[in-house]
Amino acid sequence: MTKDYSSSASWNSAALAGLIMAVVTIAVDLVRGLSGRVPGVGGGVLSFFAWAFKMVLCAWTFHYLMKRFHDSFEGVDCFSLKRYGLKLALFSSLIVAAYSLVSLLVIKPDSISEIMNTYRETYASMMDSNSEAALEKMLPKLPVYIGVVTVGYCFLWGWLYSSLFSKSIAPYDPFADIQDSPDNQ
User: Fold this and answer.
1) Crossing angle for the helix pair 7-35 and 78-102, to the nearest 10 degrees
2) Alpha carbon distance 49, 32 (integer Å)
3) What is the pTM of this model?
4) Do the Cβ atoms of 30 and 99 come closer than 8 Å?
5) Are the beta carbons of 82 and 162 closer than 8 angstroms?
6) How many CB atoms lie within 10 A of CB 33?
7) Labelling 147: which of 22, 102, 122, 180 has CA 20 to 30 A away?
């Protein structure tokens, strides 16, 4: 049963689909985090394959959610499907960023200190006192930066997926208005 397409239906469906997309992304990220605990070269290789699996699974999930929306509503063209994909990307990126902030601030609060200590150890020979002071000033703002970068990163992938998949799911027909006009019937 298909329903008529409307903007509110698009937003509602995108919110639910964004939640589904975010849950898939977060779940795969949690599994990917386990692969990072393997020491040595094997851990790096396993981490790379986990990242590749995450990208493929996220692309497949995004395509499935867009296809499901297209099949559920009557009158969804290429442009409205792309806008729906952007809404889906917005919602999922906000949820993933919120999870990453909660993870950094509540679940693993020591991770920010670990990141900064690793940075200090790696670049200690190149940092002067001014760089060290700037690093200390940035430390309290790091979760905000990470949240903004996460929203941008996830939304960028969603924009790319939306652009690619909208054309394959609902190809653009430049003559659709001419075929539907009353003069041709």
Assistant:
1) 40
2) 9
3) 0.80
4) no
5) yes
6) 13
7) 122
